[in-house]
Amino acid sequence: MAGIALPLLGIVASLVVGMDRDDASPTVAAPPSSSSASSDSVDPASSEKPEPTATTTTPASDDKSEAPPLDPPDSPLPSGSGGSASKVDLAPPQGHGPARESSWGLVPAPCTNYEQQLIDLDTGLSRVEKEDNGRIEEPGGAELHYWPDSCTGGGDYRLRGVPNTRVGLLRADDPHTAEQCRKVSNTGLPPLNLNDSETTEQAGFVIGAAICSVTTEGAVAMATIDHINDGGFAGENTASGTLYVWPKVS
Fold this sequence. Notes:
By secondary structure, this protein is of the alpha+beta class. 20% of the residues lie in helices and 22% in strands. The strands form two sheets. Strands 1, 6, 7, 8, 9 and 10 form a six-stranded antiparallel β-sheet that branches. Strands 3-2-4-5 form a four-stranded antiparallel β-sheet, with no helix packed on it.
């Protein structure tokens, strides 16, 4: 009996010892997953999505809006702009009002019509009358006379100042002022053959020059020579331009 009891005690003791070892062994925690580790290391405040920053978009510049505004269509042209006005000083001389602007021109009739042309530099208007060897029946306030000298061939017409009027030629390089125009009106305008370019150039009758006058009404007139047409109407040269008139103030 004693022999049987000893082996049984040995078995029971082994079981008790095994149970004690199981109770005493520490519990090992499972290693954390990578996702949980990363979530534990991130600051909760920084994990929130940032608020979008408000930005102001500047529209592309519009070239038209940046360009300087244009003058209204009906605005007057300033002195020194465009055409002959680019060099004409429109300031009125003492005793005269602001300049009036119009046109003037020389357009002769054929010699066979026996006509001569008279131009009034107060208005720029012209008229024709029967030609009588250069004599003028009635000037009627005209300052320029364009008449056929003989009607025997080409280049018969001559241009001159009407007798007993104050007419002169302002050269192209002279100051184009009313005061200078008044001065040269005392120099006279002898007969000029406009078909003879050498003679007219020597006299200063060229594009850029001007015919000046103190008119029968006391105005200062400047007839700029803007165009000279070679062999124009009826084979005669023609001339035209802008007429500036500073009327006399009463």
